[in-house]
Specification:
By secondary structure, this protein is mostly helical. It has one domain (2-134). The protein has helices spanning 6-15, 18-38, 42-63, 69-86, 91-98, 102-106, 112-140; strands spanning 2-3, 142-143. It has a two-stranded antiparallel ribbon with strand order 1-2. Helix 1 (6-15) packs across helix 7 (112-140). The longest helix is centred in the last third of the chain and has 29 residues, at 112-140. Mean pLDDT is 85; it is low at 139-144.
């Protein structure tokens, strides 16, 4: 039996994560909308923001499947933080006034607590990504060669 090296397994597993990332993104959108429209209070707001960051992480892995998970963390958190800081300009609030659904994507009011929620969400997604990639790469990438 020939085994792929650790680097080959990781690269192959990263390429093969598009479908799971897409499915997980759909689930996260559903759960996030449920939390947004049903739950109230600061814990619900924090959870909704963390789920938003999980979604951004999943979209990064969907569109850039070969990107190393740690790089996906940086990109996802960077996107979330950029959108949050843009709320200081009033642009997202003006867009939400003209097109209300944009409020769900861009928000309207800056909150430093949101930055912490994004960190929690991205790190949770990163942890799950590492655990699943490691688990599946061990089982999936063993090649059984016929005996001579």
């Amino acid at each position: 039996m020939r085994r792929f090296g650790a680097k080959e397994r990781a690269n192959s597993a990263r390429r093969d994560r598009r479908v799971p990332s897409g499915v997980a993104a759909v689930v996260v959108v559903g759960v996030g909308l449920l939390v947004h429209f049903v739950a109230t209070g600061p814990v619900a707001n924090f959870l909704a923001d963390a789920l938003y960051a999980v979604l951004i992480y999943l979209l990064v892995t969907l569109f850039f499947p070969r990107m190393a998970p740690i790089a996906s963390v940086g990109m996802a958190y960077g996107v979330c933080a950029f959108i949050e800081v843009c709320q200081l300009t009033g642009g997202p609030a003006a867009l939400a006034a003209a097109f209300p659904p944009s409020r769900l994507v861009l928000g309207t009011t800056f909150s430093p607590v949101d930055l912490a929620a994004y960190a929690v969400g991205v790190l949770a997604a990163f942890g799950a990504d590492l655990a699943l990639t490691k688990r599946f790469s061990r089982k999936t990438f063993q090649i059984h060669e016929p005996s001579p």
